[in-house]
């Protein structure tokens, strides 16, 4: 939960503010979603990354200003058969990275449909980033930087060309997302798809405080 | 004003209450003598959780009862919280009261000393002029009376209000009372005086002299009632008086009336029922007092009229006092709740509870509820809450008893208080001891005036100090645990309150929801504290257990935030116990929504421990969004956790085909040459169940259709994914059929019964299955036909088609010999097909032909039976080697037309060949009229058996019997004798002939004897014996026996020369003495003649005859002896007879004077009898003269 260290319950362990965000990676298969996450979380790169089954879950914490942002990353599988899974993950997500392969025009097209789907189906405050991966293979490029950039601006997306292999822009894009994410409590609360849990905690917290103050 | 009028009315005044006068028997008839009444129906009331609502309904009334200063305790603060007191404002002085450290802090009871009051009392007594406390009362004020007759009044802030020391000569204060609104105080003295003081300024308002009640007796109880004009007083004389308080034209007056005279039993305690807080209560307005003497308890109504409501005997040790205490308890009666007063009556070691209720008729009734036996003797018993009573025993230990559960909650030693006893008053020390012995003895341990209950507090006066014992509020109890860092216990206690199992829950009010909410908050609060402690690595935490505890409670209370974030993040090292607790919760199904991060860790943990079963279950239980699918599926694939995989596919990906696509190939690899490995069987069964559930729509309402379609599509797929070119069609169905044809079809058939599965789908499945089964030779022909049967029974009825050609084809396969199945298997398959009705469309003749060609006789039989050709059925049975032996029973039970078949020559021959005897039986039973026709056709052997069978069933006529015997002579000569002997209806001539012919001597003999030729019979037997002797055979004895019996039977007919003699001769040869003896002992032999005969007919020496002659001698000697003996007996008899006659003749007799016949005197000849009767000879002439004609004696 994004703000469990609410004002009503001072946390004994609270050091800096911790914000927790759910982030989902979407994109055509073999565009490098898993590699991107692996690079970000573990700093590793495998030339032959096995294709993901369903979805994989990873966490990584980054510091932005004085806030600790904890990413709960859902790395979804790009294969067509797993597409029905995606809504389950982006529904509660506060951020999404749509990845395409710069060497493959089709993946860019697919990325666009993902963006559309997110804009239509996901939470309205979702922060969407577009990542053109495999930027190290610039010589085989088939999606022009400008084209993607224009598209990103048009749709209000964060955009970077990344390379999991060379680690180019990998941390940067996550940091950019972290910065863009609302870290004030209300916004995070509203953005959260896990509102259920929040509501519950609020409902129990209120009377408790009333009781204590009495 | 009859002030003095009734002054000395200890002797029952006109309106005084005297139970004896009322009905003396009533007392003795009180329901139970020594033990309190238990009404079973009511007994449960106090125990029933539903029936009692602990606090909330009493709230209002308690609220009023509590002094303003105390009021606030109910809601929030402990007595220590200084600033929180309300209007009257408890000053800090009370807050500073020290807590006794002797009491464990978590206990329910809290003990305070009212320091300020105590020290002021002590200070006042500095010069020993005031004395030590002896009585007290408490309302909005606390008043303490002393041994010197002084009354000092304090308010709840422990400030002294006033001191009254007007009456020093009245002895000590023995009883005090304060009225409900705390404006008047009644003070009773040891010498009998009663004062009414104004509570505000100690002004004396009324003085009731000691002669108003029993003169010069100590007042031991004085009580206000609900009526402001009525107070009650009881004195040491045991009498009870009501004091009427009046104020007329500003002049206060009083009058005193005796309501109970001490001469009828001394009342030692009384307790009015106070209802002023419950003006709406149905009992309001009446004054009810509970009183107790040393032997009984009585409940008396004083207003509106004086009446005894209830009495109860209270016998116990004479050193103990009865104790009374009222409390209102909410009791659930049927569908309504009533708040009825419950009286606790205690004496010695028993507490009994009585409920007072107002019946519809207006009568006040009293029921015993329950009673509690204790292990200690009581000196005080007071209610604290509606569920709790405070008990003080003779050792000055305070016990807190939960009434419902009869459980002691806590005990507390009060000996350091030095409770003041009222024994001085009870002994009448101030009035010269004018007290009954019983009273003095019982009053030894009286504490009536020194222990008071006040709300849920207990006030006690010690010799120097005043004490308050209060029950802690539930919050305080939890808090005290928390303070001591016993957080786990605090949590447990809080949970007890939450689940309403807690005892002595004080301060928890309101509707159930409100209470639940309040407690839940507290529990969560405690939980948070515990979590904090764990997170901060507090030394007071018992790690693995407490983590488990926290996890359990968090889940129970839905505090997942606390659990998953605060605790999880806070835990540094030991996450294993956390994970274990989470795992347990998931396995129990209490937790399904787990943060993915924790779930990921849990899965890794389970993986590291190889807890595959738990892992699989967990995966199936938790929300799919909690799972790291990549991680889970990788593990599942590696460890073959198929159920988990199916669960993930279904739930996460809405994918119902993958289980088929992925798992059926695995299953196929597990099947080697038709043998399935153990794992394969598990997987296969899993898949079958999966398919069945999906097809029958058990996947869940919204997904059922998807699941069904996907599964059908998967099953019907022509080829598997990534299939080789040479893969046969429909690999999935084929594999499943190979795995377990029957189970697969069964699961399909189950789903066929679901109407939502469309007809096309079913048809498609049927077609595919048939195609798979029929093409190729991997399936046995009987399996194929079984499939056809199953499909037929489940499919055709539902409008599905199965190509009839398939049946023919399958039949052809069945009927050809070259299949790998046995004949029997094929036949039963054929039969199944036939009976399932799948062959209805085929002509019987075709089927018959097929069946015949394949030698399926059973099938033929069934077919013929269908056509009603029972004769043919019988023939089929005869043909079938397995059925042949049972043909007879079949025919007997078969259709009547089947019976006709036995007349057919060929069938008959068959039957005879199987068993001629049974055939005979059969004929007798079924076709007796045809026997004559049949018999001639049989061979002799068959005829014999046939007749044998017939004979077993019924008797034979003479002709058949003779035939039978004749045949028997041929086939079984040994049996002939028995048959001949037992059956009469045999034609003798032919039978004798044949027997003779066959040399069956015994049978011949029997027959000859029957024909009358005894000699012939004898001869036959004799010759047999002779031959036997000659050839030295066994059994001569029996033969002899036979002969002897025969000879005896024919004694009249047989000539002894031709019978006995030859026999003897014959036996002589045998030289067996014993046999000879046997013959000789036959009585009717003329020995001499026989000897002569013997001698004539033998030429031998005497030696040959020695045995015989010896025998004759012996016989002769015996006979002579017998003769002599007989003679002796005869002579002795004769002699005896003579002697008696002589004896009789010697006896004399009296002669009568008159003849009894003619009444004439005797002249000459008279006949006199021994009986004394006499007659003229003439008179009895012509009659017998040996007997008296009168009396028939000699």
UniProtKB/TrEMBL annotation, chain A:
Keywords: Endosome, GTP-binding, Hydrolase, Lipoprotein, Nucleotide-binding, Prenylation, Protein transport, Transport
Stored Pfam families: Ras
GO molecular function ontology, one term from the record: GTP binding
Enzyme's top EC category: hydrolase
UniProt-annotated location(s): Early endosome
Single GO BP term: protein transport
Annotated Gene3D superfamilies: P-loop containing nucleotide triphosphate hydrolases
Keyword Protein transport: yes
Main location: other
EC number(s) from the headed UniProt entry: 3.6.5.2
Gene Ontology cellular component terms for the protein in this record: early endosome
Catalytic reactions on record: GTP + H2O = GDP + phosphate + H(+)
Family per record: Belongs to the small GTPase superfamily. Rab family.
PANTHER family attached to this UniProt entry: PTHR47978
Name assigned to this protein: small monomeric GTPase
From TrEMBL, chain B:
Xref: Pfam families: Beta-prop_VPS8, TPR_Vps41, TPR_Vps8
Cell inner membrane as UniProt keyword: no
Keywords of this entry: Metal-binding, Zinc, Zinc-finger
Family membership: Belongs to the VPS8 family.
Protein name: Vacuolar protein sorting 8 homolog (S. cerevisiae)
PANTHER family named among the record's database cross-references: VACUOLAR PROTEIN SORTING VPS41, VACUOLAR PROTEIN SORTING-ASSOCIATED PROTEIN 8 HOMOLOG
Organism: Nesidiocoris tenuis
UniProt biased composition (Low complexity): 81-98
Taxonomy, superkingdom: Eukaryota
Polar residues bias (residue ranges): 30-46
Residues annotated as domain RING-type: 1155-1192
Region (Disordered): 1-54, 67-102
């Amino acid at each position: 939960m994004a703000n469990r260290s609410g004002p009503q319950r001072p946390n004994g362990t609270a050091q800096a503010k911790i914000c927790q965000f759910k982030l989902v990676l979407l994109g055509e298969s073999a565009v490098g979603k898993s590699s991107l996450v692996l690079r970000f979380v573990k700093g590793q790169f495998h030339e032959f990354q096995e294709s993901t089954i369903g979805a994989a879950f990873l966490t990584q914490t980054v510091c932005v200003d004085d806030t600790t942002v904890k990413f709960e990353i859902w790395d979804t599988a790009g294969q067509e058969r797993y597409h029905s899974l995606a809504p389950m993950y982006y529904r509660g997500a506060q951020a999404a990275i749509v990845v395409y392969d710069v060497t493959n025009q089709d993946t860019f097209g697919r990325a666009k449909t993902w963006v559309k789907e997110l804009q239509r189906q996901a939470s309205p405050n979702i922060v969407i980033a577009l990542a053109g991966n495999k930027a190290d293979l610039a010589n085989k490029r088939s999606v022009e930087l400008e084209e993607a950039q224009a598209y990103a601006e048009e749709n209000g997306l964060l955009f970077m060309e990344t390379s999991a292999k060379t680690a180019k822009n990998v941390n940067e894009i996550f940091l950019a997302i972290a910065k863009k994410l609302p870290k004030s409590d209300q916004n995070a609360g509203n953005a959260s798809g896990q509102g259920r849990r929040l509501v519950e905690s609020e409902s129990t917290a209120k009377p408790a405080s009333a009781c204590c103050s009495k | 004003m009859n002030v003095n009028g009734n002054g000395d009315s200890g002797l029952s005044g006109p309106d005084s209450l005297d139970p004896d006068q009322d009905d003396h028997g009533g007392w003795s008839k009180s329901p139970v003598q020594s033990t309190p009444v238990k009404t079973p129906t009511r007994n449960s009331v106090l125990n029933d959780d539903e029936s009692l609502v602990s606090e909330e309904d009493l709230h209002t009334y308690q609220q009023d009862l509590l002094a303003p200063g105390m009021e606030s305790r109910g809601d929030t603060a402990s007595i220590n919280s200084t600033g929180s007191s309300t209007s009257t404002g408890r000053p800090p002085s009370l807050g500073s009261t020290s807590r006794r450290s002797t009491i464990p802090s978590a206990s329910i009871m809290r003990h305070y000393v009212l320091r300020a009051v105590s020290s002021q009392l002590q200070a006042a007594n500095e010069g020993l002029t005031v004395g030590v406390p002896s009585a007290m009362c408490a309302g909005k004020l606390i008043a303490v009376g002393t041994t010197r007759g002084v009354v000092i009044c304090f308010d709840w802030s422990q400030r002294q209000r006033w001191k009254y020391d007007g009456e020093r000569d009245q002895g000590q204060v023995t009883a005090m009372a304060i009225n409900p609104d705390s404006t008047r105080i009644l003070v009773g003295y040891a010498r009998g005086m009663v004062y009414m003081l104004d509570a505000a300024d100690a002004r004396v308002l009324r003085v009731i002299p000691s002669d108003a009640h029993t003169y010069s007796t100590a007042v031991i109880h004085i009580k206000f009632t609900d009526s402001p004009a009525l107070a009650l007083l009881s004195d040491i004389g045991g009498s009870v008086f009501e004091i009427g308080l009046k104020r007329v034209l500003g002049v206060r007056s009083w009058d005193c009336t005796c309501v109970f005279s001490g001469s009828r039993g001394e009342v030692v305690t009384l307790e009015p029922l106070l209802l002023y807080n419950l003006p709406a209560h149905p009992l309001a307005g009446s004054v009810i007092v509970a009183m107790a003497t040393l032997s009984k308890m009585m409940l008396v109504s004083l207003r509106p009229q004086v009446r005894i409501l209830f009495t109860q005997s209270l016998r116990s040790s004479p050193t103990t006092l009865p104790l009374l205490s009222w409390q209102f308890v909410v009791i659930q009666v049927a569908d309504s709740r009533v708040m009825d007063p419950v009286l606790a009556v205690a004496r010695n070691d028993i507490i009994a509870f009585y409920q007072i209720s107002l019946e519809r008729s207006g009568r006040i009734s009293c029921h015993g509820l329950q009673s509690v036996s204790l292990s200690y003797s009581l000196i005080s018993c007071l209610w604290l809450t509606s569920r709790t009573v405070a008990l003080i025993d003779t050792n000055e230990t305070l016990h807190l008893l939960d009434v419902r559960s009869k459980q002691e909650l806590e005990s507390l030693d009060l000996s350091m208080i030095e409770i003041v006893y009222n024994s001085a008053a009870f002994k009448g020390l101030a009035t010269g001891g004018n007290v009954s012995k019983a009273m003095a003895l019982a009053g030894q341990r009286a504490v009536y005036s020194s222990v008071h209950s006040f709300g849920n507090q207990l006030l006690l006066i010690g010799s120097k100090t005043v004490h308050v014992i209060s029950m802690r509020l539930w919050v305080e109890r939890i808090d005290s645990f928390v303070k001591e860092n016993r957080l786990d216990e605090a949590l447990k206690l809080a949970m007890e309150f939450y689940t309403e199992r807690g005892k002595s829950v004080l301060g928890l009010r309101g509707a159930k929801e409100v209470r639940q909410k309040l407690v839940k908050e507290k529990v969560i609060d405690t939980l948070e504290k515990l979590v904090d402690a764990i997170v901060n690595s507090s030394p007071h935490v018992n790690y693995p257990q407490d983590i488990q505890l926290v996890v359990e409670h968090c889940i129970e209370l839905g505090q997942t935030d606390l659990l998953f974030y605060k605790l999880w993040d806070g835990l540094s090292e030991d996450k294993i116990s956390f994970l274990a607790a989470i795992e347990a919760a998931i396995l129990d199904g209490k937790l399904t929504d787990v943060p993915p991060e924790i779930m990921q860790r849990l899965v890794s943990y389970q993986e590291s421990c190889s807890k595959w079963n738990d892992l699989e279950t967990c995966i199936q239980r938790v929300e799919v969004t909690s799972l790291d699918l990549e991680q889970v599926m990788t593990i599942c694939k590696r460890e073959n956790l198929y159920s988990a995989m199916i669960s993930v596919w279904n739930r996460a990906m809405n994918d119902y085909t993958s289980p088929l696509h992925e798992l059926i190939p695995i299953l196929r690899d597990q099947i080697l040459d038709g043998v399935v490995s153990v794992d394969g069987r598990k997987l296969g069964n899993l898949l079958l169940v999966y398919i069945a559930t999906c097809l029958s729509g058990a996947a869940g309402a919204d997904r059922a259709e998807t699941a069904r379609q996907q599964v059908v599509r998967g099953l019907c797929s022509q080829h598997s994914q990534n299939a080789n070119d040479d893969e046969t069609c429909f690999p999935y169905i084929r594999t499943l059929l190979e795995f377990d044809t029957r189970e697969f079809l069964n699961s399909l058939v189950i789903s066929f019964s679901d109407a939502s599965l469309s007809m096309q789908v079913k048809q498609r499945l049927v077609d595919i299955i048939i195609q798979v089964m029929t093409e190729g030779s991997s399936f046995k022909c009987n399996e194929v036909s079984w499939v056809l049967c199953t499909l037929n029974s489940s499919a055709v009825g539902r409008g599905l088609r199965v190509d009839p050609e398939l049946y023919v084809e399958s039949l052809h396969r069945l009927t050809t010999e070259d299949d790998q199945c046995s004949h029997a298997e094929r036949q039963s398959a054929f039969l199944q097909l036939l009976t399932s009705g799948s062959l209805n469309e085929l002509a019987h003749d075709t089927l018959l032909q097929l069946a015949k060609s394949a030698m399926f006789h059973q099938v033929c039989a069934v077919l013929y039976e269908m056509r009603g050709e029972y004769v043919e059925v019988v023939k089929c049975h005869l043909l079938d080697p397995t059925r042949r032996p049972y043909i007879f029973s079949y025919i007997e039970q078969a259709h009547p037309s089947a019976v006709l078949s036995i007349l057919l020559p060929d069938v008959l021959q068959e039957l005879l060949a199987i068993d001629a005897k049974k055939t005979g039986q059969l004929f007798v039973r079924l076709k007796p009229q045809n026997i004559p026709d049949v018999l001639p056709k049989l061979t002799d052997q068959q005829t014999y058996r046939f007749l044998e069978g017939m004979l077993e069933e019924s008797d034979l006529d003479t002709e058949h019997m003779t035939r039978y015997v004749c045949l028997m002579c041929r086939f079984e000569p040994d049996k002939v004798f028995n048959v001949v002997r037992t059956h009469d209806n045999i034609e003798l001539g032919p039978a004798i002939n044949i027997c003779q012919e066959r040399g069956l001597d015994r049978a011949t003999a029997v027959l000859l004897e029957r024909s009358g030729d005894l000699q012939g019979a004898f001869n036959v037997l004799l010759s047999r014996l002779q031959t036997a002797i000659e050839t030295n055979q066994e059994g001569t004895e029996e033969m002899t026996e036979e002969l002897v019996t025969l000879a005896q039977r024919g004694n009249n007919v047989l000539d002894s020369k031709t019978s006995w003699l030859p026999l003897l001769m014959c036996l002589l040869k045998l030289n067996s003495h014993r046999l000879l003896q046997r013959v000789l002992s036959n009585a009717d032999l003329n020995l001499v003649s026989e000897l002569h005969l013997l001698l004539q007919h033998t030429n031998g020496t005497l030696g040959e005859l020695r045995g015989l002659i010896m025998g004759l001698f012996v016989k002769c000697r015996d006979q002579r002896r017998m003769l002599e003996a007989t003679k002796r007996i005869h002579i002795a008899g004769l002699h005896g007879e003579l002697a008696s006659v002589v004896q009789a003749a010697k006896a004399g007799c009296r002669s009568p004077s008159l003849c009894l016949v003619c009444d004439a005197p005797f002249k000459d000849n008279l006949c006199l009898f021994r009986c004394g009767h006499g007659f003229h000879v003439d008179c009895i002439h012509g009659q017998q003269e040996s007997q008296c004609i009168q009396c028939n004696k000699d």
